[in-house]
Structures are given as C-alpha cells and as structure tokens.
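Quality-control log, excerpt.
Job 1 of 2 completed; input and output follow.
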Amino acid sequence: MKESPATDEAPLRADAARNRERILAAAEEVFLERGADASLDDVAKRAKVGDRDALSPLPDARGPACRTER
C-alpha cells in the first residue's frame, strides 16, 4: 500500500471550509488596507473568528501576506 505524500491535506469540514474562505478574504482586505502593519488580530476580527481559527488554515505565519501577493 502506497502512503500519501505529506503535502496531502484532509478534506475540511463544511464549517471549517467556510471559515477558511472568510479568513483568507479578510486577510486580503486587511493586508491591502494596512500592509505590513496588519496583524492576525485584525484579520480575525474582520473574519469574525478567534485568533486560533485565523491561524488554522495557514501553512506558516506568512500565509496571509503571501496569499495577497499576486
């Protein structure tokens, strides 16, 4: 039996998927408005989630900033 690579992610629950989309949209808005002065707390408040929830969909601390760099 072949093992899945470490990069495979388990599917998100419906509520977690909705929160993830809200968090990423909020992160983009906040970082575009405030740039490097944006904080995780700003993103969490904008997405209406807790700080821990705001961290959960991110692969690392640069996640929100990298997401808006297009």
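Job 2 of 2 completed; input and output follow.
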Amino acid sequence: MLPDELVTRIIGERRDGSTLQAITDRLIADGEPAARGGRWQPSVIRKVLISQRAVELQEGRSYGQ
C-alpha cells in the first residue's frame, strides 16, 4: 500500500491539471518507489486515483471508515 502522503500528492497533481504521464515522470524523477517494487506507469497512476483509499482521502475519512 502506498503512503497517504503519496496518494494525496498524486490526487493533488491530477487536480492541478497534470496528465497521468506527467505525474508518472515526476514520481520517477523524484525517486518515489512504486507499490510492490513495480515501476510507475500512467496505468498505475490511474489505478491509484480510482482506488478506495484515494476516495477516502478526498472525503477526509480515515482508513477503513
């Protein structure tokens, strides 16, 4: 599972108008590790954005509430 701070960053960058590819490129450039040791790709960013955790963070809920 990704840290909340990273999910929040991805949400914020997308909200600010960044493309999935631009977010991917910045995460790679910043050396952010991807989930499960994988590689950042636009499809992974999309999955993060539609994840239940992203929804909870956008609604201000704690994990599992």
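Post-run check on job 2. The chain has one domain: 4-58.
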